[in-house]
Design goal:
22 strands; 530 residues; six-stranded antiparallel sheet
Length: 530
């Protein structure tokens, strides 16, 4: 914290001490509407007092950020107005990681000068537990910490895209929801807070979860400060807790510190690293878990007592068994047909000689069956019309920001030499996440029959999914076709022509890219039924 902000906070504390003494459970503020229930912290940098209160009119609990100060102090009043303006702008922002702002009260508008308050930000109450209480017991497991910060980083990313500063750089403003996600429970950014402060706060929250220490100025007295090296650098979390992965430790420090070329300055960059680290560490911890067996929702068992069965191995085994069964059925059917033909041939003196020792090679053309044969004729290949160009395309990633969103347009520009590609991942889908893809929209519904992929990365597995809207939940889409990409051109036929305005090209397995995983798509063509 700079000197000027410290002086402002200190002056506000000095002016408001007598007034703050009356902020006790049972007091009613905001023109007699909100009854204080319990205090959850103080952000001393702006003399913001964080309370849970009861809305007497709507009969519900709310979160109050009370800006305490002397109304006669013009500088304190100016800073409070700036905070209230920012909170008003935030009231139009909706995200699961930020409590919704319900009302903003200012002097003369819901607050009287006799209350000793300069403003009040009213937000919905967030159920769950205090972040400070969480880390007071012991640091959080690295995988869980990455997951918690990931949800908060998604909120920051969306807010920054809308030009909003959230002001989450104080741990007592955050709460842990019952579903394990961090949430900004007491909105109200300080007057001088910047976008960069939000990003640094993500690193500080990660540092706090991993170590129980706060690495930014102005933290609550209940939390010890992060230790510093003799050179004035933050001691990495891995030095305090050796079980912290090196990538996660580095991410926290690089996000907090301003100097050097290796700093992380955007929430998008944080999200990319967190997604990979969380999955890697979660699996490591599961394997090491005491007590042996840990069951995943899909039935996979992780254990330290016997070899680990991962999802990919089980899927490959299931696929192999399926292929074997299908091949056996085909061979038996073919053998039966040959025997029928043999017996029919024996009844005719001039019947042809048939070799039943082995099926004809795939490279040879088989003679058409005799007229008396009962074998059905193969179904004709469906005819297709001219490709219909999509009206728009966007990266589809239900779990957060998509991969290389600016390059999505190259997948439908008709040029194989310009491509869209995913990020490079250290782990294969679905270990890191279920997939990623492209969603295309057509001006009018088409009766889609095939999708042609040019310049795709071999080894990638693709699903074609129909959707009813431009940005659907994955569970609301329907798989209508699938295929494996190969060099050059790949045709992915649909099981049957499907009418629709929106389709998702969904990647469920990435191609191999020098020890990492990535998929490129040069161009997509959408062919309707002829």
């Amino acid at each position: 914290m700079d000197t000027r902000r410290s002086e402002q906070a200190g002056g506000a504390n000095h002016v408001g001490k007598a007034q703050v003494g009356s902020l006790a459970p049972g007091r009613v503020v905001g023109d007699g509407r909100y009854r204080l229930l319990a205090q959850f912290g103080v952000d001393e940098r702006g003399d913001a007092h964080l309370w849970r209160a009861r809305d007497g009119q709507l009969k519900r609990d709310v979160a109050l950020t009370l800006l305490v100060g002397d109304p006669a102090d013009p500088e304190a009043a100016r800073l409070a107005r700036r905070t209230l303006e920012r909170a008003t702008h935030a009231s139009k922002f909706g995200h699961g990681g930020v409590a919704r702002v319900l009302d903003v009260l200012a002097l003369g508008s819901g607050i009287t000068s006799s209350e000793g308050l300069l403003g009040v930000v009213v937000a919905e109450w967030t159920k769950g537990s205090d972040l400070v209480d969480l880390v007071a017991q012991r640091p959080v497991a690295p995988a869980a910490a990455a997951r918690m910060v990931q949800a908060l980083a998604e909120a920051v990313e969306q807010a920054h895209q809308n030009g909003l500063v959230l002001g989450l750089d104080h741990p007592q403003r955050l709460r842990l929801t019952p579903n394990g996600a961090l949430k900004l429970a007491f909105p109200g950014p300080l007057p001088e807070a910047t976008l960069r402060d939000d990003v640094k706060a993500l690193g500080a929250v990660l540092y706090l979860l991993l170590t129980g220490r706060w690495a930014l100025p102005g933290g609550p007295p209940a939390i010890p400060a992060a230790p510093m090296t003799p050179q004035g650098r933050i001691v990495p979390p891995r030095q305090l807790a050796p079980t912290v992965p090196a990538d996660l430790s580095s991410l926290a420090v690089r996000t907090i510190e301003d100097g050097g070329n290796g700093g992380i300055r955007t929430s998008a960059a944080i999200l990319r690293v967190l997604g990979q680290v969380a999955e890697e560490e979660e699996r490591t911890q599961l394997i090491k878990a005491v007590g042996g067996d840990v069951a995943e929702p899909d039935g996979t068992i992780w254990t330290t007592k016997k070899p680990v069965k991962d999802v990919a191995r089980r899927r490959k085994l299931a696929l192999g068994v399926t292929v074997l069964v299908v091949a056996t059925v085909v061979i038996l059917a073919w053998g039966g047909l040959m025997l029928i033909n043999v017996f029919q041939g024996d009844s005719k003196a001039s019947g042809p000689s048939i070799n039943v020792a082995a099926p004809p090679a795939s490279s040879q053309q088989s003679a058409p069956p005799p007229a008396s044969s009962s074998a059905p004729a193969p179904p004709p290949s469906p005819s297709v019309g001219a490709a219909v160009p999509p009206q728009s395309v966007a990266v589809y990633n239900p779990e957060g920001r998509g991969d290389n969103t600016s390059r999505a347009k190259y997948a439908i520009d008709g040029k194989a030499e310009t491509e869209w590609r995913t990020e490079k991942y250290k782990q294969q889908f679905p270990t890191i996440k279920p997939g990623v893809g492209l969603v295309v929209s057509f001006e009018n519904p088409i009766n889609l029959s095939q999708v042609k992929v040019i310049g795709g990365t071999p080894g990638s597995k693709i699903e074609i999914r129909s959707a009813t809207e431009k940005n659907p939940d994955l569970a609301d889409t329907k798989v209508v076709g699938n295929g494996d990409l190969k060099d050059g051109e790949t045709i992915i036929p649909l099981a049957q022509p499907t009418q629709g305005e929106y389709f998702v090209v969904w990647i469920t397995q990435l191609g191999d890219a020098d020890g990492q995983y990535m998929t490129e798509i040069g161009d997509l063509s959408f062919l309707p039924a002829g």
